[in-house]
Amino acid sequence: MLYLHGLGHFYPENVITNRFLSELDIGSSEEWILERVGIVTRHTVLPLDYIKATKNRDLRRVMEASLYNNAQTAAAAARSRRTRSPWRRTPPASRRWFRCGSAAARTRAAST
Question: What is the 3-state secondary structure (H, E, C) of 64-101?
Answer without folding.
Answer: HHCCCCHHHHHHHHHHHHHHCCHHHCCCCHHHHHHHCC
